[in-house]
Amino acid sequence: MGLLDMIGPVMVGPSSSHTAGACRLALLARHLLGEKPRRVEFGLHGSFAKTGKGHGTHLALAAGVLGLRPDDERLKESLALAEKEGVEVAFKEVELGDVHPNTVRMVLEGEKERLTVTGSSLGGGVVRVFDVDGFEVRITGAAPTLVVKNVDTPGVVARVARILADDEVNIAHLTVSRKKRGGEAMMSIEMDRPLSEVPLRYLEHLSYILWVRQLPPVMD
Question: Domain named ACT: which ranges (predicted)?
Answer without folding.
Answer: 145-217
